Amino acid sequence: MILHVVEARYDRDYVIHLKFNDGAEGFVDLADELYGEMFSPLKDLEKFKAFRVDPELNTIVWENGADLAPEFLHDCLLIPAQPGDQPDHQ
Question: What is the CATH number assigned to the segment(s) 5-75?
Answer without folding.
Answer: 3.30.2020.40
